[in-house]
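pasting input
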Amino acid sequence: MAPRPYEGDVIRLRAREESDARDFYRWINDWETIKYLGQRYPRSMPFERSAMTAGDPTYGLAQFIVETRAGRKAIGWIGLHDASPEDRAASLGIAIGEAEFLDGGYGTDAMRTACKVGFEVMNYNRIDLTVYDWNPRAIRVYEKVGFQHEGVLREGIWKAGRWHNLVLMSLLRGELR
Amino acid sequence: MKRQGDDRASEWPESRFQGRLVRLRAREPEDEALLFEWFNDPDVTEHLSMRYPISHKGEREFLVRSADVGYNNINFAIETLTDGTMIGGCDLHRVSAENRSGVLGIAIGDKAFWDGGYGTDAMRTLVRFGFDMLNLHRIELDVYANNLRAQHVYEKIGFQFEARKRKAIYKFGEYQDVLVMGILEGELRLDD
């Protein structure tokens, strides 16, 4: 069987379609989803429709829909962005918008799959991310997948009326578990 | 130890464009010749992210982009107070209004001014400008792990080591770690 880099155990990554705008609109305006992200403004349907059709995944910016393999249900998104070909490095962002899929290993599987894509398809050497220091659940997932702690950006972001520290984590080629 | 805001900082000029040795000014078209010379000099770019030769046209366009100074485009030439010799440049980029944060970049292109405290003074002047004139809360920078000299300067004026990005940059045939350093409002040390 040919390699299937976009398939995990329970999820698959696929390109965004205009028909995903409705789900995205719901997720991006849901505080329970965006409180863990940098996102801070409401988004309109036209904005999300144009975002969905802004471009298919490429080396420099690869945004994917995370969908379940079983029911092909869109449950969130994951993206690799700001890739530098010389440094072979990129940054990662993820969100699971459907609350009932926060458990069950979907996020972990999406992380592993996207990182595998980063190493095997894009030929990255390094993938990094930042996460709020009060989000131990996400940090545990990143650690489990192989990400290492690199430091803390003190008061790196202002959101919801206060400063937040950002934990910087990274995964190098060969460290993915 | 003296910090921003205490009485001895009054030794500093009231002008937020000015330090004790240097002044920050807007870029001018006439700066092009020196920029071309400096940023094609491997000794100058060794510890910068630049890795390609740059043309006269590239420098001219950079100067046009830089001329319109504002909140989202902080980019200055550094010149000496004594005779106005341009010795380098500096900037604050990725300025975020919500986070009140920015990323600092600096280069002293004239090697005759690599010693004597000019870089330190320019750093202090730019950070002070960021806090006092832009109302920033946090300024960060990236520095290559092997650039101990720069790290020493940043530490001396109040930057703290926050993170070590493993193998984050590839130059000269090898990966190298990049250190992230950050300074918050109230942490700037205006005196040694």
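fyi The longest strand of chain B covers residues 160-171.
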